[in-house]
Design brief:
Blueprint (H helix, E strand, L loop, with lengths): L3 E12 L4 E10 L2 E6 L7 E6 L4 E4 L1 E6 L19 H5 L4 E7 L7 H7 L7 E7 L19 H10 L4 E6 L8 H10 L6 E3 L10 H8 L5 E2 L18 H9 L2 E2 L10 H9 L13 H4 L6 H11 L4 H6 L3 H6 L16 E14 L5 E15 L2 E5 L32
Length: 411
């Protein structure tokens, strides 16, 4: 019996959690990372997959999407607007995702039973303070009517997968939604992710991140059009740097309405990058502006010529740390073998923001392979396959199940 089940050979490994950014081999045994090192012995592996010229990273972590698709509620993020995660995430190298507030305490058990527990993808969640989550915009407008006891009981009972608190889409002129979230946070001590909803002059964004949030809390959609990011002199507003120093985390949450290049390009050029690059994938964004995690990462690379280690950091270990997701976003020996393999395409490509802004670029990231717990769940170019001529004469025929009957009458 050989030491490794398979070996990814000669890829450029980028593992920000462990400071690896070089050509190396990645070995997997029994669904775990067994070794990451240059020049591992191919003879020790049952199968060797040559990934020369490709990038090998931890399976990506998408910290913001919506995947509660099983409720069948029309025109709702907790319903028809949600995506089927395995079909969408694996082709983009994503092996872990976080559903951010699609469900509340009244329907989370259904979400867990029908999606989280049935998916190969590793799914975590943020629990919406609204009892029915994002079943409609209306249910998120009355925080004082929420069932406090139900939220606390549900969050504590499901603390293995519920990693935070979500508020979103609030249209009021006050801070009642955040005040309520802070109330439940005192008992369920997890980060609050704030989708600031409809911006109002009575609720200035700088007050949110400088006074209302606490260290570890998260402002998502941080490069939206209404967010004051760049001042009249073209500089990032000072309050954003101070909020980051306070420990406030900033999430991209691209979606179909939450990224404009007039904010993103100058901000990232000055070093103010979101802490996490996430997609906010749902039915309205997957066929429009966000498309996929690989598209979002390619767009971020086009908007800011950052090292690939910094790009992938924001889609691996940073979201894992931000939401305390455990042993994901890393190729550490002993961790589950969640791995992504990427090609860097060279050519002429275009990327669009959420308001018609466009940028051209010469690079595009494409996912070649994805492994979840050591299992191949995406193989774009059949790299794990064997040339058919090298297989046994009757490969594809299984005698223990069926007969291989030769023709006798019509020869």
């Amino acid at each position: 019996m050989k030491k490794f089940d398979f070996l990814l050979k000669n890829g450029h490994v980028i593992d920000p959690a462990n400071g690896i950014d070089s050509v190396a081999d990645v070995a997997v045994a029994q669904g775990k990372i067994a070794a990451v090192s240059a020049n591992l012995n191919a003879a020790d592996a049952e199968k060797v997959i040559d990934v020369t010229g490709l990038y090998v990273t931890p399976g990506l972590v998408d910290a913001h999407l919506h995947c509660y698709y099983t409720s069948q509620i029309p025109k709702a993020w907790s319903g028809d607007y949600s995506i089927q995660p395995d079909y969408v995430c694996f082709p983009a190298g994503v092996t872990t995702c976080v559903d951010v507030g699609s469900s509340g305490s009244y329907n989370f058990d259904h979400f867990r039973a029908t999606v989280i527990n049935r998916s190969k993808l590793k799914i975590f969640a943020l629990l919406n303070i609204a009892d029915y989550g994002m079943s409609s915009l209306m249910v998120e407008q009355f925080p004082e009517r929420n069932d406090y006891d139900s939220f606390i009981e549900c969050a504590q009972r499901n603390a293995d997968v519920i990693k935070g608190i979500k508020i979103a889409h609030y249209e009021g002129k006050d801070w009642r939604d955040l005040d309520y979230a802070k109330k439940v946070q005192k008992v369920f001590n997890k980060p609050i992710m704030v989708d600031f909803g409809v911006f109002k002059k009575e609720r200035p964004y700088d007050e949110l991140v400088m006074e209302r949030l606490d260290p570890g809390d998260i402002s998502t959609h941080c490069l939206r059009g209404p967010v004051p990011v760049i001042d009249e002199n073209g500089k990032v507003y000072e309050y954003l740097w101070k909020a980051r120093e306070r420990g406030i985390r900033f999430d991209l949450g691209h979606g179909c309405g939450s990224y404009v290049m007039r904010n993103g390009i100058p901000a990232m050029a000055q070093g103010f990058l979101p802490d996490t690059f996430s997609t906010d994938l749902h039915a309205l964004s997957i066929n429009s502006y966000a498309i996929s995690m690989t598209n979002v990462l390619s767009k971020m690379l086009a908007c800011c010529d950052m090292p690939l280690s910094e790009l992938f950091r924001r889609a691996t270990i940073e979201p894992a740390k931000m939401l305390d997701l455990g042993d994901v976003g890393t190729l550490s020996v002993g961790s589950e073998a969640d791995i992504a393999v990427f090609n860097m395409l060279e050519g002429k490509f275009g990327y669009q923001d959420n308001a018609g802004g466009r940028i051209e670029a010469s690079r595009k990231i494409e996912c070649e392979m994805t492994f979840r717990a050591g299992e191949i769940v995406w193989d774009l170019n059949a790299r794990a396959g064997t040339p058919w001529q090298e297989l046994p004469k009757l490969y594809g025929f299984f005698p223990e199940k069926e007969a291989y009957v030769l023709p006798t009458r019509y020869v």
